[in-house]
Design goal:
The structure holds two protein chains of two kinds.
Chain A (H helix, E strand, L loop, with lengths): L5 H9 L11 H5 L15 E7 L5 E7 L1 H5 L3 E5 L1 H4 L6 E3 L5 E3 L5 E2 L5 E7 L2 H10 L1 E6 L6 H4 L16 E2 L2 E2 L5 E8 L1 H10 L2 E12 L8 E7 L4 E6 L4 H12 L6 E4 L15 H13 L3 E4 L2 H7 L2 E13 L5 E13 L26 E10 L5 E2 L8 H19 L3 H8 L8 E2 L5 E2 L4 H12 L1 H13 L5 E11 L11 E2 L2 E2 L2 E7 L5 E5 L8 H13 L6 E5 L16 H28 L6 E4 L2 E4 L2 E7 H7 L13 E6 L8 E11 L5 E11 L6 H20 L31 E4 L17 H18 L13 H10 L5
Helix pairs in contact in A: 11-19, 13-14, 15-16, 16-17, 18-19
Chain B lengths: L4 E7 L2 E7 L5 H8 L18 E4 L2 E4 L12 E3 L12 H8 L9 H14 L5 H7 L11 H14 L17
Parallel strand pairs in B: 1-5
Antiparallel strand pairs in B: 1-2, 3-4, 3-5
The chains are: A alpha+beta, B alpha+beta.
The complex binds FE2/S2 (inorganic) cluster (2 copies).
């Protein structure tokens, strides 16, 4: 007979924290019944298409819309002149700058929005867009941020003339956005002067794009009779969109409903408010009909939220044993033509100051300069908690550079510099308070799993054999992330603190609905939030319906990006569950006629301490909540929680990559990739593994192929899937995953968030592996992407290529 | 506007008639005229495979086919897979093996995998990775998609199948 403990079977029924629960959202997706924005069809709906600039920098001499307007089926053609009376031709960005909704006299990047054509269907709209005649006078474009900062550089933002102070302090040049510094410069400089060993390395983190499979879009529907505006939109932050739309349109937020339906991947691409959304809304208000706008892939890759474009110079000072004494970093950040980075207001370089990494570095100083260029705006996206990807890349590359200089093994130098376990909570030299970490055991576990010594021996043998057709490289990263933005004392967007929220209502039959301020783009929130409630409130997950994304029903929240759903909203779920549980305790005590203090919570019931036979299940308690509550208690069983986190969370991981580089072609094969992640408490191991596979694959894409290069005229050269690398099932390596568990001490269930770690951590791991393959030849750095051509050039320069 | 043409074909075994411009793409006809929004648009340049349908026994990207080319043909989309409330083995496999996240690529993936299993009932991992390489996924990293297809292949061959993610593996009392 099968011996299952009764507790185990009850746990199985709950499907709580730790269960590999199958996803609640899958049945609709596997049957083609998801509802993505482009699936929404409303009666009388029109279709909008954007007319865009072919030039990166040009004055607009005239726009002639008459031929387009005369075309049958065309309902409207909007230009900046039409938006001016509404004061909607410019809009505020999330970074304290402004952005042209439709170009106002001048275009400043290729594919900038110039006019918006609205027609009966998408074919007519596309035809009519071709008939809009725009006369341009081309201006010299500048796409290199260093050239942009030279004295005679073209003025990109004429609208900022005379503004010496921007949202983040003084501007020292017409193309300068801000200078941001953190850390103690003098102490850091002194530590460098005193150190016996220093290394310096320049590195570019190229401009890339998250490229979710679904592009951005919306359906705007204004009901002139009711005065209500409803917008279905691909947004990772629907409540923020509602506030922005309210500010822009002067419609009260109570009359605006923003709905994020199913979203086909976001990765940070869908946080901002884009011109297409605004023009669709205006068109709907003007025409009184629903208007749909859906980006093409080319528009997506060339106009909405890119990532990176960080030109970094790192320096480390160390003693001769490789113990790091100081870190110095200077960055030129190319933000494009408008500063539209979706960073928390006070942090123009996001959380870049996590760049001391997992290492106990006593002195550090960082200086970041934001610069305008004739490129499209954005910068903070792509599975990245606000510039953490850049920060981790920098430190994980720098420590390898130091190891090579000193001839110390790359695993050993990390073990020598880790923040020791007993130092947590750890206050970093750049002012962050790391909640928890235990780095050395994680790295040791990885080294053992892959037989690190064996790999190094194999590498040595291959290096000694001149006939070996490949170079072998081993990459290691031991990264620390910072996620869960964030404490409202330091984090806000448009002045709204970065809390998140959950509302739970338990129905009389013991089932429940939970509504959230976040929105899943594939993370499986409907599945995992229910698991938290199951464990924390004793209600089986199968009886919990999780809803999010509709601002008319969900409590206000800041949305899903920067791995913040689990650390922030997940905490709100746990705390709302605890409120439910505490009320349930009192009701159970009342039903059993004992004191609440004599009750104890037991999976899915409350029982009397010392007399477990006397118990009330959560189902019985839920029923009683609607007819038999203690004197003086309100009926019902519901709770709301707005959670303002006391701190960020700091997930970490140890990754190891083995690559083989063909000497004759430069092709690189990832032979092995071992990823150990520590995200604290694990809510659903199946979903975590899936997130890690996805993040590693996106990391692989960035490291080995993705970039959005520009030519000197400002033409973007990577704007289609012909040119922009998305790995297929053929190139994608096989992933091995592992974990340790170091809970966050300040999170109600100890969870830290995971989705971005594999992206953040894997990219430097791949680069480290590629550089390691060349390390014996004196190479300390090679730029991304490590594609075959670039790698072959390096082999040729080193006289290795066949 | 160009003159419209009447086109008749079978969509998931049901006869349909539509009036389209000769230039209209099948994906737009399906999604906008026939309420068949399972196949998605990820690129419209035949790179991503989100729009994959089965056209008379061949996988095609519906953004690369004109509706007028479909006269009298059989079109199978994701909507045609579950029968009588019963999921197709591939649908079950994708769910059991966590072969999807945002779900945007999934209808195309399943439709393509269906064609693969029609041609090769017992594919190797290499076969699967090769056959699926015209369908991009930004979320999963493909590893679980491979497993999902292996699961379905085994089930369709009548073999016993089980998820590789047991519910209680990490839970202890
Ligand atoms: S939409 Fe058809 S292949 Fe991408
Ligand atoms: S599941 Fe999101 S693209 Fe495949």
């Amino acid at each position: 007979m099968n011996e299952i403990s009764p507790d185990l079977s009850r746990l199985e029924r709950l499907e709580g924290i730790g269960c590999a629960r199958k996803r609640r959202e899958d049945p609709r997706f596997i049957q083609g019944r998801g509802t993505y924005v482009d699936d929404i069809h409303l009666p009388g709906m029109l279709f909008g298409v954007m007319v865009r600039s072919p030039y990166a920098h040009a004055r607009i001499k005239s726009i002639d819309t008459s031929r387009a307007k005369a075309m049958p089926g065309v309902q409207a053609v909007l230009t900046a002149e039409d938006l001016k009376p509404l004061k909607l031709h410019w809009m505020p960005t999330l970074a304290g700058d402004v952005q042209a909704v439709l170009a106002d006299g001048k275009v400043v990047f290729q594919n900038q929005e110039v006019a918006f054509v609205v027609a009966d269907d998408r074919y007519v709209a596309a035809d009519a867009a071709e008939l809009v005649e725009v006369e341009y006078e081309e201006l010299p474009a500048v796409v290199d941020p260093f050239k942009a900062m030279q004295p005679g550089a073209p003025v990109i933002r004429e609208d900022l003339a005379g503004k010496d102070v921007g949202a983040h302090g003084a501007r020292r040049h017409h193309n300068h956005i801000f200078n941001w510094q953190i850390g103690d410069r003098d102490r850091t400089d002194r530590a460098f002067d005193a150190a016996p060993v220093t290394v310096k390395q320049e590195m570019l983190y190229p401009r890339v794009h998250p490229c979710p499979l679904e592009t951005c879009g919306c359906v705007a529907s204004y009901d002139a009779v009711r005065g209500d505006l409803t917008v279905w939109i691909t947004s990772q932050a629907p409540h923020v969109v509602r506030t922005v739309v309210g500010l822009l349109s002067s419609i009260p937020e109570s009359k605006i409903r923003i709905v994020s339906p199913d979203i086909g991947g976001g990765f940070g691409n869908k946080v901002g408010v884009y011109p297409g959304y605004v023009t669709a809304i205006v068109a709907s208000i003007v025409l009184g009909r629903p208007v749909k706008w859906i980006e093409s892939r080319n528009e997506n890759l060339t106009t909405t939220a890119f990532a990176r474009d960080y030109w970094m110079t790192g320096e480390l000072a160390a003693d001769t044993d490789g113990r790091i004494k100081a870190l110095r970093v200077n960055v030129i950040a190319d933000h494009g033509a408008f500063d539209a980075c979706a960073d928390p207001t006070k942090w123009p370089a996001g959380m870049f100051h996590v760049c001391t990494g997992s290492y106990d570095i006593p002195n550090a100083h960082v200086s970041v300069d934001g610069v305008y260029t004739n490129k499209f705006p954005g910068g903070v996206s792509y599975r990245c908690s606000f510039r953490v990807t850049e920060a981790v890349y920098l430190i994980e590359r720098m420590i390898d550079v130091l190891a090579q200089k000193l001839g110390i093994d790359k695993a050993e130098i990390r073990l020598r510099n880790f923040i020791p376990e007993e130092k947590f909570p750890y206050h970093s030299a750049l002012g962050l308070d790391y909640d928890s970490g235990n780095y050395a055991p994680a790295l040791r576990k990885v080294l053992k799993a892959v037989d690190y010594d064996g790999l190094r021996a194999e590498q040595a043998a291959k290096r000694a054999d001149p006939n070996c057709p490949t170079l072998m490289g081993i990459g290691i990263t031991t990264f620390t992330e910072i996620v869960g933005a964030g404490p409202s004392k330091s984090c806000d967007i448009l002045g709204i603190g970065m809390f998140d929220s959950c509302e739970i209502r338990v129905h009389p039959d013991g089932s429940a609905i939970a509504r959230m301020g976040t929105i899943s783009q594939g993370q499986g929130h409907q599945t995992t939030y229910a698991q938290i409630i199951a464990t924390e409130a004793g209600i089986p997950a199968s009886l919990i319906n999780v809803e999010e994304g509709d601002t008319s029903t969900a409590p206000y929240g800041l949305g899903t990006y920067g791995s913040r759903s689990t650390p922030v909203a997940g905490a709100a779920v746990a705390r709302a569950s605890h409120k439910i549980r505490e009320k349930a305790r009192k009701i159970a005590a009342h039903l059993l006629e004992v004191s609440p203090d004599d009750m104890e919570f037991d999976l899915d019931q409350f029982r009397v301490k010392g007399d477990p036979s006397r118990a009330k299940s959560m189902k019985e308690i839920a029923w009683a909540a609607y007819n038999n509550v203690p004197e003086g208690m309100e009926m019902g069983l519901e709770a709301v929680d707005y959670y303002d986190p006391p701190n960020f969370t700091f997930p970490f991981g140890s990754y190891l990559a083995v690559v083989d580089i063909q000497k004759d072609t430069g092709e690189i094969k990832v032979r092995r990739f071992y990823a150990l992640d520590d995200c604290g408490t694990r809510i659903n191991p199946m979903i975590i593994e899936g997130q890690i596979h996805g993040g590693l694959t996106e990391g692989f894409a960035v490291a080995f192929g993705q970039e959005l290069p520009y030519d000197e005229q400002g033409n973007v050269l990577g704007g289609t899937l012909m040119d922009y690398f998305l790995p297929t099932s053929m190139e994608t390596p096989h992933w091995e995953t592992d974990f340790t568990v170091t809970p966050s001490p300040h999170h109600p269930i100890g969870a830290k968030g995971v989705a971005e770690s594999p992206h953040v951590g894997s990219i430097p791991c791949f680069s480290n592996a590629v550089v390691d393959a060349f390390a014996h030849l004196g190479v300390t750095h090679t730029g991304m992407p490590h594609n075959a051509y670039r790698t072959w050039q390096q082999l040729r320069d080193l006289n290795i290529a066949g | 506007m160009a003159k419209k043409t009447a086109v008749s074909f079978r969509l998931n075994q049901t006869p349909v008639d539509v009036l389209v411009e000769p230039r209209e793409l099948l994906i737009h006809t399906l999604r906008e005229k026939l309420a068949t929004t399972g196949p998605h648009i990820g690129c419209e340049t035949s790179h991503c495979g989100a729009c994959t349908v089965d056209l008379d026994g061949i996988s095609v990207k519906a953004c690369t086919v004109l509706t007028v080319q479909c006269e009298d043909l059989d079109v199978l989309t994701i909507e045609g897979f579950a029968k009588g409330g019963q999921l197709h083995a591939l649908q079950e496999g994708f769910m059991q093996e966590h072969g999807l996240q945002c779900g945007f690529c999934t209808p195309g993936m399943i439709t393509r995998a269906y064609r693969l299993l029609q041609e090769i009932p017992d594919p190797t991992e290499e076969d699967i990775r090769y056959w699926m390489s015209g369908n991009l996924c930004r979320c999963t990293g493909y590893q679980n998609i491979v497993k999902a297809i292996q699961y379905a292949a085994a089930k369709l061959r009548g073999e016993a199948v089980a998820t590789s993610h047991p519910l209680m593996e990490e839970v202890t009392v």
